[in-house]
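Give me the 3D structure for tRNA(Ile)-lysidine synthase.
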Amino acid sequence: MARIPAGVAAVRTAVRRALPPSGLLLVACSGGADSLALASAARFVAPGRVGLVTVDHGLQAGSDARALSVAAWAGDAGFDPVEVAAVAVGGRPGGPEAAARDARYEALSAVAARVGAVAVLLGHTRDDQAETVLLALARGAGPRGIAGMPARRGIFVRPLLEVSRAETRKACAAQGLVPWDDPHNVDPAFARSRVRGAALPALVEALGPAVVANLARTAGQVAADNAALDSLARDALLSAYGSDGLEISVLSGMVSAVRTRVLHAWARELGASGSALSHRHVEALDALITDWHGQGPVHLPGDIRVARVRGRLVRVA
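Predicted structure for tRNA(Ile)-lysidine synthase (317 residues):
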């Protein structure tokens, strides 16, 4: 029996470990090396229950033809169903990268719901995770950002977070798959492209190739710590509820890492958007507890105001 090439084996093993045992699976495939290798592995591991969706962001000339080309390959390769989702990126909040990401995830969720998929497989690799950690560090994003991309969140599954980008390229080459290289991935206008093309290679040169795996491993370790602290915070939030807000006396007895998570969760319950709620908002709420000197209400996203009133944090008009 011919030996399976190492890259192919690495991707297939990762996919086999990650897939739900039953139900329709959708692979999100741009035509790049990572998602092509993922798609091929998923079809091999779970024949007969793998479909494919490719998203046309409309940001480049010929993007519609590229999406149709990926769909045609998928149809010939036996994926079923095969979907092309065209999205509108313009007019969304945030920068172009964030807007494209939000539009893509909305489209993937909609297709999955329509066809009854139990999971959408994403092709993010260990290298992507390392880049995400570096970007989070640069933004001062804190533990939630440093935790990087989760292996699973809702319907989305990332089987390749422990597989390198080099391995996905080797997997494609071994199977005769010709990936498309997105020019946005090397465009210095995008922060991730600058990390990929300059910052991370500089770290590898200075600290050795293990830095990529170590950054990705750090994300997993921080994510585990976050999960434990979030569990403690859920219980702590319940203990802090008073008649019309949160009791300062209870909040002040919590350790900072738990209390700030309680405040973040409570702000979300009040209606503040998670994407707009920043550490500055949480710090301002925390100052109403730990640095109280009569300051006025804290303004949260969504036109929400919180004040300290008679020993409680309460929402005010």
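The two ends are 73 Å apart (CA to CA). Let me know if you want a second pass.
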